[in-house]
Queue: 2 jobs
Job 1
Amino acid sequence: MRVSHPQTPRQLALWSASLVLIGLCIPAVLWLAWRSVPVAEGPAPTLEIVRVARSEADRIPADWQPPDLNPQLEVDVRAIPETLPLSQTATLSAALPLASQAFSVTAAALVVSEALNVRDGPGGEYVPLITLNNSTVITVVGRYAGWYQVVTPDQVLGWVDSDFVATNVNSATLPTPAAIPDAAPVLAAQLLPEISGANLRQDPSLRAESLEVVRPAYGDVVLLKRFDDWYQVRTPGGSEGWIAAELITTTDYIARRVPVLTASPAALAAVRLARQYIGYPYVWGAETPRAGFDCSGLVKYVYGRLGLDLPHGSREQWSARYGEKIYDQALLRPGDIIFFENTYRRGISHVGIYAGDRLIIQAISESVGVRVSSLDEAYWAERYVGAIRPFP
């Protein structure tokens, strides 16, 4: 028969320590087992922006919109195209067709419309060359499908709708051209044969990075857009970039159809970016989409995204040296940074982004947020100071 002996204090201490370790291990094992089981994630939290308020603690969902200020202006600014309409490209990109040959039949005629477009083909889908006023005397030299080929007083050769022309000539006696030009031709061009090659650049600037060298032997390039003295082209290999216009040859008929940018690509990118924040709240001192914007904060953020580091403050932005100053409103281009004075203090006190068509995207006030205004409104016209063009 075994007799148990009383346990020593040392043995009791060891037993107590073992029980504590077991008590700690069991929860750890259970926790690790729970972590290994996949758990369905809940919905991602909705991003929030700061309400126009005195404290950042007052938050609302990101889809918040302030009351409409002038909805039509916002529709207009979102509809502003990057390129000029074709009716404006003729005088910008190509010479007007002039009547240099003799015609077998001519007849005097009179314009009977307040404004009659002379186009470079017989149809409304052709590019307008010039506009004739009522009672302008013209010479009819041909006909095709309800259109007259005419010579204007300035010797421009083109086509007009016969319904808006008065003449005594019998249309059947007028000659019909042997060929009618394609209203939507491929905008093909060639590099000058005498050059060895042309740099295809990232942007329309000699300072821009050269992507590759395009050779005349490669074949035709397709003209995509024009800006100042540059063409954006697509090469036979599919690359896209900018080539100096002086290195490219094409017909005036083709050149008239190349869309002309209203501003540099970088400036247009600024307008596109600024348009995204129409409706965001105005928050004094803020400069991010999450926090909101004040007037100079919006400008700082938009142009910062495009690589331009601007100070925060309308006076500071006007004083900083980062672009060409523009004072004449008639010379404004989309993407110009536009400044105003005497709004809530004397001197330069407000700034916005010019979107074209006399429209400004700007963070206006706490009551309306980032909205669109017109330079034709007396308030802004009277306070206009000038603009800075950060991208040439």
Note: The longest strand covers residues 348-356.
Job 2
Amino acid sequence: MSPRWRNVLLVCTCALVAACKSGPFNLLRPSSPHQQYERKLVNAGLNQSAMGSGWVSKANNLLKNASGIKIPYKETGYFAADKFDGASFKFRLERGQMFTAKLTKQSVNSFSIYMDIWEQNDDGEFKLLAFADSIGSNLQIEAKRSGDYLLRLQPELLASGSYTLELTTGPSLAYPLKAVNRKQIQSFFGVGRDNNSRRHEGIDIFSAFRTPVIAVSEGTVTGVNENNLGGKVVWFRPKGKDYTLYYAHLDEQLVTPGQEVMIGDTLGLMGNTGNAKTTPPHLHFGVYTSSGAIDPLPFIDPLITPIPTIDGDIAKLNTTMRASKSAEISDQLPLQQTETLKQNTIARVLAVTRNYYKIELPNGKSAYVPNKSLVDAKTIKTLKITTNSQSLLDYPDVNAGIKTSLAIGKTVNVIGDFEDFQLVSTTDGKVGWIPLK
């Protein structure tokens, strides 16, 4: 990108900060920093330029072509100023989980990375759920449904720098006992009860008789009563939530209906009342919505998987490498629905995660590949030009721009290839593509 373009963008962006306050995009609903930035590009007319339209197109493609991952996840990547870079991830969350994205940036010059999280509706439309400000480093949401979510990262134009992204999940509520022990949970949601005539509508947490059971959040006690199955029970509505919590098999209830409680307040003492008379003392903990019982485990599960370490070489970020051998690649981790990356194929390293590189192929497709399958893109062999005025192309396509003409008899170094083209370098340092012979 030329300095002139950088200056144009800077001037237009600064001028539009005030203009956007009273212009047609001054909407009452809040907009994300990404949306605000795109509106500035549109108001400045930059969306009609190759630079602006490329950025907008990249934003849309990131949502449509997200990399499939499993959480926890960590990657370190690099966004280049002369590219339309970005990253997007598709992953599953269970209702009740708290999702956290932590982003750190490193650059000589401060630059913005826009981070937002989306869900895709049944009709294929994307819905924005939450976003971080362009300076902040964290984004956190509670999953309101079980399903697939998407996280998008996109830097501002003409900006470069590295980043590290950490994605984790944990419970959105506290644990219902003061001493947290995952091994106490020994019976899970959905298992058969009474000769499979019904399904377990909660989880059972075992501990000593009359162990205090506590409020997992701030909220209101909505019911204190006794029934045949649950024995002595307490119903509790967390503040601001659309579900009710159910504490059953208590030996004693210590709250009253309508009582406001804080997180950690004691609601009752563990027992084995109701249909649990023949079992050891335990708490039956349930979550009920307007549609019935749902799995409570994601709401309180204390088991948090550690973030994986990065084993790849971050010095390779934004460098050109080639496949040292045939390798399996995929747009998902763990590798699924794999394709074969042919030996000597050229790729740019976008990010490093675990023991994989995330690469971009010359056609713009991104994928994960085991890092041991790539080596530096150095000379494989030399080649003498046999065609008069052979064009050195800037892209592996016969219609690509011509960087220079190579005279017949000239010798070039072959670095790698992609499909029907070879990437070569000349003795005077020019790098480009020529057709395979």
Note: Residues 182-296 form a domain with the Glucose Permease (Domain IIA) fold (CATH 2.70.70.10).
